[in-house]
Amino acid sequence: MTATRWLAEYAWLPDRSEPTADVLIEAEDGRFTTVTPLTGAAAPTAGVEVLTDAVRLPGLTLPGLANAHSHAFHRALRGRTHGGRGDFWTWRDQMYAVAVRLDPDSYLALARATYAEMALAGITCVGEFHYLHHGPDGTPYADPNAMSAALVEAAAQAGIRITLLDACYLTASVDGGPLAGPQRRFGDGDAARWAERAAAFTPDGGHARVGAAVHSVRAVPAEQLSTVARWARERDAPLHVHLSEQPAENDACRAVHGCTPTRLLADREVLGPATTAVHATHPTSADLALLGETRTGVCLCPTTERDLADGIGPARRMADAGSPLSLGSDSHAVIDLFEEARAVELDERLRTRRRGHFPAARLVDAATAAGHAALGWTDAGRLAVGARADLVTVRLDTARTAGVPPVGAFFAATAADVTHVVVDGRAVVADGRHRSVDVPAELRATIAEVTR
Prior knowledge:
By secondary structure, the chain is of the alpha/beta class. It has 14 helices and 16 strands. The protein has an eight-stranded mixed β-sheet, covered by helices on one side. Strands 5-6-7-8-9-10-11-12 form an eight-stranded parallel β-sheet. The chain is globular.
């Protein structure tokens, strides 16, 4: 891979509270080799001749964004679930109707289009919380990891990295109800067989790695939680878990186990610095303390949480307790990490009726370095020498961003304002267009195929 140079009008450098003007960024073999603010006589206005080979990046350049929680096939549901009042559980029935229609080929096509939409939004890495493992009746494919391979290939074709979070999903309810209907394709029988299948999958290409997931305390019996946690620890792999997304989950866990889901996970050694709790919308004060004490991360997905009327999680209290915060687009009602990031602050304002909970730099960290760390890519998410050469540029002259100071971009920009995306030194998006995928056309075709 050849060396590449970019000249950013503004760049958000590590450990700075606001963007820096006129930054020369160079990369070689997929890593940043130079990140240099230009000042004085070397500024772009005085040194155009020596910078003629640099790609100009007008606007604000950020590290690559990390989408720490995705269910790729949920993208087919966008705009289709608003016909009545409903709730999370009625939405889930519609989600299952899509799930039964997918096979490795159609899932590859849908995920490729979805991941390419993420690339257009500035996302350079996705955490795919994957539980759609087997055929519609629960029978494994000839390759038991065919669906996993389809997702990894989809990310490669879309030009982004992926952490495949292989989810253990064994039961339909906290009290151990059996999987039925569409759920049958999620299950491996028990955690030992899940671990055997997950261990057999070695993804091709340096763009992918494998982590683990406990779908939820509804889906993995208490006595088998430690099997999943041990599998992840032995591989130094990230471990994610849906946690307290719904009050009904908390109530059922108390009824069966006499404790909250967070307490149950702590007792089974699931929590810890390599673990990320997704949502954590309805924790108790004791739950927050447990998450913070164990340095368990929390992935917030505000656009999905509001779409499903789940509620507003206590983001500021989580951060104060010691839990790193990351972001995800989850069901893909919206794919826009700028919206997810500012929603962390704005939803907290709604919940508390006070402003000023998270400065812009904290929101940038949640969308970049913290998200990559939650997915096991600790060498990404920073515009710094030695880091993976991921960058995202946002225009500051659109109808949304004109007149906005660079530090305020996270409160004004949308995914539509992204112009350039580079992943591991390779340009994936240029001038607002994906370089290899016709994203709208592929989304239309693949969604029509699984919803007709």
